[in-house]
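Quick one:
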Amino acid sequence: MIKVEGHPHLFRDEKTGAIINCDDVGYDQYVKSVELRKNQRREISDMRKDIDEIKALLKIIVDGNNKT
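Output:
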């Protein structure tokens, strides 16, 4: 593989001419950030479900008090 000038983590494959990124630290950071976003979305979804359940229960309580 041939180093790409000015880019310490980039190499060119001699057979295919493809540029290959060998930055393991950068890749690991990317994977962690994807997992973090996934977890955040899951937490937000769980909170929305909890809020919907609380709203439904409050509505039952309010409707029950109005019937008396």
